[in-house]
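FAQ
Q: What does a multi-component entry look like?
A: The components come first, one per line:
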Amino acid sequence: MDRKIYFDHNATTPIHEEVFDAMVPYFKDEWGNPSSIHWAGRGPKKAVDEAREKVAGFLNCSPIEVIFTSSGSESDNLAIKGVAFSMRSKGNHIITTKVEHPAVLNTCKYLEREGFDVTYLGVDADGMIDLDELRDSITPKTTLITVMYANNETGVVFPVAEIGEIAREHRVTFHTDAVQAAGKIPLDVKALNCDLLSISGHKIYAPKGVGALYVRRGVRVVPIIHGGHHERNRRGGTENVAGIVGLAKACEIAARDMEEETAHLRRLRDRLEEGLMKRIPHVKRNGHKDKRIPNTANLSFEFVEGESLLLNLDMLGIAASSGSACTSGSLEPSHVLVSMGLTPELSHGSVRFSLGRSNTEEEVDYLIEKMPPIVERMRSMSPLWCEVEKKGVDLSFEEKTCS
Amino acid sequence: MQGTNRVVVAMSGGVDSSVAAAFLKERGFEVVGISMQLWDYSEGGESGGGATGGSCCSLEDIHDARRVADALEIPFYVVNMERPFLSEVVDYFVKGYMDGETPNPCIKCNEVMKFRLLMRKALELDAGFLATGHYARITVDDGGTYHLLKGLDEGKDQSYFLFTMTQDQMKRVLFPVGGLRKDEVRGYAARLGLRVAEKKDSQEICFIEGSSYTDFVVTRGGGGPGGPITDTSGNVLGSHAGLFRYTIGQRRGLDIRDGRGPYYVVDMDMERNRLVVGSRDELYASGLVARNVNWTGRPMTDGQPLTVKIRYRHPGAGAVLTHLDGGRVKIVFSEPQKAVTPGQAAVFYSGEEVVGGGWIERALR
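Then the predicted structure of the entire assembly, as C-alpha cells:
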C-alpha cells in the first residue's frame, strides 16, 4: 500500500502543524497546574485563560461561558444531563431527533431510564426535520431541546437558528451538538439562538481528548464530573492545558481560513460526487443536496455492501467510512439513513466520504478512477444485480441468508 | 480474479491460523487477515452472548488475531457475521437437540461461515484464495480434480469437519498448516515470536465453552418435557428430564438402579418422548442412513468399499455404501459400530482422502 488518501475527516482530523507547535511548550516547560498559586501554575493558567478567550471569540460568547471538557461526547453529556437534572423540578420532557450522534441519543436513552420523557423527531427523505412537528411536541413539561447543527453521517445542516427561536418562544433551553459543523460553517451562538453548544477538538485539527461546551450565562448545568473548583465548579479535573491550547489554536485557524477552506471543500466534494455518480450507475446521494456542510458526501451504491467497498478502498490506501459506525460494532444499518427512509440494503451500501483541508483534486480523481471497477466487480457477484442487468450468475458462493 | 496473489486468511486468534497467515506471507502472498465476529458481546446484545459465558471468537481472540496481524504487518479486518451465525449455526444447533439429534456445529460453521460467507467476502476483496488453519490438505491431480486429504498430523487431523467442501471451494482454499505437525506449528510460531505460540487449543463447541449445552439450549428457547426411560422392549425403568439432555452412548445421569446395568442411551423415541436405554451390546449398530450427502469429487458407486468415520475421534470402520433416493446413502459396516449418533456426520474416506460425507439420520440395527 503506497498511497495514503484520507477521506474520513468527520471521524477525526490530523493535527494542524500550527496547533501542534502551539501545544509543545505545555508538554515541556509549562507543565504546572493552572490552579496553583505559585510560579509553576502561572504560565499554564495564563494559557488556559487565553485559550478560553480565543474559543469564546470563535463562538461569539463571553469567556466565562466556555467550559473545557475531554470530548464532544462529554460536552453533550454535560449539556443534556446537566440541564435535565437541574431543571427536573420544572419538568421532565426532552425533545431531540432520531438522527443525533450516539453521544446525544444514548444520553437521552439513559435519561429515559431515569424517568425522563424523550420525544425523538423524525426526518424526511432529505434528512430534514419538520419545525411544525417540533412546535407541536413542546409541552409545559419540556425543559430541553437538543438538535445537532450538522449531521455526522450525511452532513445535513439543521435550521438551528429557527429551532433556537422556537425554543426561546416557549422558554425551553436549547442545546446544539455542533461537533461536525465547527470549522465548516460559521458558529455564532448569538445568531444560532442557542443556550448550549458542543464542539470537539479532534474534528477541527486539534488533538483527541479535548472539547468545549458553551453554556449561556444564566443557564444552570449540574456537573457530571465532580471534583475541585475547576471550570467554575461545573467540571472537575485538572485542565488538559496542552489540549485546551490546541483547541483554541484550532478555533483561531478555523475562523481565519473558513472562507477559503469552505470553497475548497465544496469544490472537491462536488467533484467527487459528480465524478462517482457519472461513472457508476445506481448510486444515490443521501441527504439534502444544498443544506449540508461542504465537506461530506454520503452515497449509497446499490447492490453492494458498504463494508466490502471500504475494505477494498482501504487496500488501495483510501480511507472512508460507512453509514454504520464501524465494521465490527453494530450490525444495524445506520440509524440516520434508516430514519430517512432508506431500505436496509441501501443503507448497508452507503459510504461516507468526508474531505479535509489537505485533500487535493488529484486525490479525488484517483478515487474516481479506482472505484468504478471495484463496484463493478462486487456487483458481478450479486445475484440481485445480475437480475437487474439480465445476466447469468454464478451462484456457487451465494449466501443462503441475506443478512 | 483467480489470478491474484491476494489471500484472505480466516484468523481466529489461535496458533494454527496465525501460522497459516505467517506461512503464506513468507511465501510471498499478499495476505489479508479477517476475523469473524460471530457473537454479540455488548450488554443486552442481540445474541445475548454475555449471559451464556460463551467464548466463540471472543474479544480476546480477536485481540490476539489483531496483534498477530500487526506483528506480521498485514492488513486485518473484523467482519461482523453475528446474524448468519445465529440463523445458520446456533439455531441449527438448538434445533438439532430439539429433534433428538446431537448436532455438530463445527462442521456447519465451516460449511456456512467459512467456505460460503467468508469465501464470498474474500472474492469481494479480489482475493484469489481463502486460507484457514485447518489440519487437512488439498491436492490437485493432472486431470484438474481437487482432492481433500487428511492432515499430515494424524492426531490433529480435522478433515472430518470439512466433508461439505466442493470442487469450487477446494480450488480456492488453502490449508497452510495441513502439512505440518502441531509441534511444528507451535515451533514455527515461537520462531517468529508470535504471542499465540503457546496458546491452548480451542474446545469443541466454542460458543458454549465453560457452561452446559443443556442450559444453552434452554436459554435459546429449546428444551422439552421429561418422560419415561424404557429398555429396548418398552419396559419403563425410570424417567428422563427432557430428551435434549441426552446423547447416544451416554451412561451417566440415567439414575436407573435395578442392578442390571450399566445402561447406555441407545435411542430416542421422539414420538413417545421416550429415552431408550440398553446394554453395551445394544449400543452397537450394523450400519446407518445418512442424508444431505456431499461428494468432494465424483460420487462413489454402490458396493464400493470405503472407511467411514461416525464421529470426530472415531478411528474409522470399513463399510460398503448404497445410494438411496433424496441424496441419502445407506452404509453397512463390516463390523458393528458403537453409538451411531443421529446429527453427527458420517464421513467417507478412501485411504487418506475424504471422498464425501453426510449427516447421520438413523442407525441400522
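Q: Is there any commentary attached?
A: Sometimes. For this entry: The two ends of chain A are 31 Å apart (CA to CA).
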